[in-house]
Amino acid sequence: MTPGSYVLRNLNSVDETPGSVRYATWWSSCDEQIAPVESTALAGAVNTRTANCLKHNDLLSDGEVARQVRAFLADGVK
Length: 78
Hints:
- Helices cover 27% and strands 10% of the residues.
- It has helices at 6-11, 63-77, and strands at 24-27, 46-49.
- InterPro entries: AB_hydrolase_fold.
């Protein structure tokens, strides 16, 4: 996943959100793993910036992020 690598160039050369699947991302301005943090957003997805300053792994245990993910998934079931 090195910037400019063969893998990323190929992933970025096609539609970021193919098919009829709904896509979503959650990101934080304090993520220390994703650089730049804005690159988390995908064209065609619901892209949500967290209200709190969360580090990368904190996204996994944040209650508000979990609530938003559940709501996104529940909305797709309707």
